[in-house]
Amino acid sequence: MGTFIQLVIDGLSTGSIYAALALAIVLVNQATGLINFAQGGMAVLSAYIAWALNGFGIPLVLAILIAIVASFFLGALIERYLIRRFERGDPDTAVVVTIGLLTLITGVCAWIWTYNNRLFPSLFPLETIKVAGAVISVRSLGTILVIVAIMILMQALFLGTKLGLALRAVAINPASSAFSGINVGRSLMVGWGLAAVLGAVAGVLVAPQLTLTPGMMDSALVYALAACILGGLTSPIGVVVAAWLIGVLENLAAVYIPFIGHDLKIAVPFILIFVVLIVRPQGLFGRKAVVRV
C-alpha cells in the first residue's frame, strides 16, 4: 500500500507539471482558437531568466516573480508582432509558425546558456513526510497545490469575469466581438500573456525536478498536448484531471504491468487518447462544437 500511495502522489506531481503547460495551451486556444506549440520553449526561457536573476544574487521568489512578469510581456509582444499576422489566415500556417517559434526560442536559450545542465533551486523544501508507509516529498505536494490553485483561478477567469468572457467571445467570433465593443487586439495580447505566465510557472516547477536545459520541456509538451486531447480544450478542469490521470496511470503501469515497465510507459497516454477519441472525440470534459451551415 505504501508503494501504491507513493506512486500515486508522484504521478500527481508529475501530472501537475503537464497540467501547467496544458492550461497555457487551453488559454491560448480559448483566446485565439490556435494550438500553441511554442509554449514549452517559452516556459524554458522563463526558467532561464529566473535562474540567471537568482545567480546575480536576487532572491529566488523575487527572481521568479520578475521572470513571470517578463513572460507576460513577452507573450503579449509575440502575439502582437508575430502571431497576429497569421491568426486570421490558414490555421495550419499559424500552427507551423508556433512550431518554428519553439525551435527559435530553444535555439536562443542554447546559444546564450549552452546545453549544459544547470541546477535550479526548488521553491519548496526538499524534506519528506511519511504517509501510510509511503515517503512523499514536500516538493511534490507543493507542486500539486500550486496547480490546484491555478486551475481554480482559470475556471473562475473563464466563467466569472468579463475578461474571461471576452477571451472566449474573441476566439469564437472576433468580428461580432468587435461590434460588441470588445477590444479584440488587447484581448488576444492578454490571452497570450497569461498563457506565457502559466508556462513560466511550469518551467520553474519542472526545472528543480530535472535539470535546467533548453530541451527540458520537450517531453512535458507532448504530455500536455495529450492532456488537452483527453480533457478537452474547452475545460481547464478537464485538462488538469487528464494530466493527473496520465501521470498516475503512467507510474502505476510502469510498476504493476511487467511488459510495459519504464521503457514503454510513454505509450500509456497515447493508448488513452485512442480510446477517448473513439468514444468521446471532444474529450472527457469538452463540449461538442455545433456549427450552423
Automatic annotation (TrEMBL):
Domain of life assignment: Bacteria
A Gene Ontology term for the protein's cellular component: plasma membrane
InterPro entries in the record: ABC_transp_permease, BCAA_transport_permease
GO BP annotations, alphabetical order: amino acid transport
Subcellular location: Cell membrane
Protein topology in the membrane: Multi-pass membrane protein
Main location: membrane
Keywords linked to the UniProt accession: Amino-acid transport, Cell membrane, Membrane, Transmembrane, Transmembrane helix, Transport
Chain ranges passing through the membrane: 7-28, 48-74, 94-113, 133-153, 188-208, 220-247, 253-279
GO MF terms held by the record: transmembrane transporter activity
Keyword Transmembrane: yes
Recorded family membership: Belongs to the binding-protein-dependent transport system permease family. LivHM subfamily.
Protein name: High-affinity branched-chain amino acid transport system permease protein LivH
Organism: Microbacterium trichothecenolyticum (Aureobacterium trichothecenolyticum)
Designated gene of the protein: livH_3
